[in-house]
Amino acid sequence: MKNPYQAAMKNSLSTSSAQEVEAWALIELAGRLDRAAKSGDKEQLLETMRLNWRVWTIFHAELANPDHAMKNDVRENMLSLCRYVDKRCVEIIRDPRPELLEVLITINRHIGNGLLGRAAGDDGSDESTASPPNTQPVDAPSYSAEPIAEHLSLVEPSLA
Fold first, then answer.
1. Where are the alpha helices (DSSP H) in the chain?
2. H or E segment at 111?
3. What would the pLDDT profile of 45-86 be if each residue is shown by its tens digit?
4. Do residues 137 and 23 touch, judged by C-beta distance below 8 A?
5. Are 104 and 52 in contact (CB under 8 A)?
6. Whose CA is closest to 93, among 29, 85, 39?
7. Using the 8-state DSSP alphabet, how is residue 125 labeled?
8. Which candidate, 9, 45, 7, places its Cα nearest to that of 24?
9. What gap in Å lies between CA 123 and CA 148, rounded to an integer?
10. What's the start-to-end Cα distance of the chain, in Å?
11. Maximum Cα–Cα distance across the chain
12. Mean local confidence (pLDDT), 15-34
């Protein structure tokens, strides 16, 4: 039998926009990274870091397309952030110390909340799990994130 929370989350995500799914994935990853850092379990930390790296690699691949619909200056800034996250993930996988995760947790929370049009900290980030999206983003960037959302389900079924 499925967990009722997981069933509700899957239903909510299936009716959400691609941008909302991406936001939820980033906020969920921030929570997972935070729990991994606090657990002291090196394997959990590495597993969660690899998942974070894969998700950001998907963002990078989609944003690298010069015909991407996102405004060019925003796209270039996001590409720079993707490169930073990539380097940081490699650094942490090489030397998995919990204190190195904080910057990635912060980035994921800020970008996730930005995609939802919320201020950082409005994600329930002190909670143990992120809530699935259920509202339209406010003043969110105008671009189609559907290819990224499609890839998220391939990376980690629980993120789609």
1. 4-14, 18-39, 42-63, 72-94, 102-115, 146-155
2. helix 102-115
3. 999 999 999 999 999 999 998 888 888 899 999 999 999 999
4. yes
5. yes
6. 85
7. T
8. 9
9. 21
10. 19
11. 47
12. 89
